[in-house]
Amino acid sequence: MQRPYNFSAGPAAIPAEVLEQAAAEMLDWHGSGMGVMEMSHRGKEFISIYEQAEADLRELLAVPPQFKILFMQGGGLAENAIVPLNLSRAATVDFVVTGSWSQKSQKEARKYASEVNVIASGEDSGFTTLPDPARWQPSKGASYLHICSNETINGVEYHELPDLRALGCDAPLVIDFSSHVASRPVDWSRVGLAFGGAQKNLGPAGLTLVVVRDDLLGHALSICPSAFDYKIVAENQSMYNTPPTWGIYIAGLTFQWLKRQREGTASGIAAMEQRNIAKAKLLYEAIDQSRLYINKVAPNCRSRMNIPFFLRDETRNDAFLAGAKQRGLLQLKGHKSVGGMRASIYNAMPLSGVQALVDYMREFEQLHA
């Protein structure tokens, strides 16, 4: 029996194989007599889960050895504070604001940095475009430059990370990649720190991933709580405090699922990128070719993960959502701040799910256009 297709922006769909394995191991993990939620985080059983997850993620994302992988808590919102607590040095930090999440990030950073400069913004376009990096003017001596590389709500994505060196900028690039992590490769030569909540592409809510370059450790402000000091977290292998053990376990199963994926000669993240390109192309073409639906984002920066769209006649929104639910197409209502619809098509969403949505959209248009 086909499960409904879940288009939620997060917490989002988890691969069925992962859920089935977790269910089978719920009461007894590998003959240990314990479920993962019952284990000591310092016991040999969980340590093996953690070490395998960390190794698999490093392999999948091709994380260089000079970066630490940290499993933390608090989601992206908490990292909006934890990053400046660790990296700002109470000095100047730069932001490029491209939507709701980068707006939140720069507002939070103002509590910890002496100066926050918004060096570029897409607000004038209603956050439907990305400001051209060639026009950015980074602050001299900034501690870091922050971008949200995929805006979950507004549906814009950097398809290529900016090269700050080409701008004559020495500041490390900080990226919030919550909603597209593991959907495509990362050019780590351009990144100083990346963070993201797991609840979109990696697993359940409650786990936060931080990948941070070694030279950025050890600069936390004196007011930074010890549990949020990246250097302390790294020195303690993410176990300075009790980590989100269940989240790490599910993420680890997801990493193994990702490693098994194949698309032609491609595997792992490369295979997922091919699938994600195909899924997004299918849905965007259906929107662009219709008379009823519209996507307002400039084609050169449309997100592959989060696709907002609107009915030209918004009085039909409720009918559209009701019909979608009847067909097992769930969580399509847009974010309350922008309205309309939104289809989040993360790694766990198969092409068949997007095709089912496109078929329904065309059927609804024939009845109501």
Topology, please?
Blueprint: E1 5-6, H1 16-24, H2 44-60, E2 67-72, H3 75-87, E3 92-97, H4 100-109, E4 115-121, E5 145-148, E6 150-151, E7 156-157, E8 173-176, E9 193-197, E10 208-213, H5 230-235, H6 245-260, E11 262-263, E12 266-267, H7 268-288, E13 293-294, E14 306-311, H8 317-326, E15 329-330, E16 341-344, H9 351-368
Parallel strand pairs: 1-15, 3-4, 3-5, 5-8, 8-9
Antiparallel strand pairs: 2-10, 6-7, 9-10, 11-12, 13-14, 14-16
Helix pairs in contact: 1-6, 2-6, 3-4, 7-9
Describe this protein's structure.
Helices cover 33% and strands 17% of the residues. A hairpin with a 4-residue loop joins β6 (150-151) and β7 (156-157). The protein is built from 9 helices and 16 strands. The chain is of the alpha/beta class and 369 residues long. It has 2 domains: 5-12 and 263-368, Aspartate Aminotransferase, domain 1; 17-258, 3-Layer(aba) Sandwich (Aspartate Aminotransferase, domain 2). It is globular and about 60 Å long. A 7-stranded mixed sheet has the order 2-10-9-8-5-3-4.
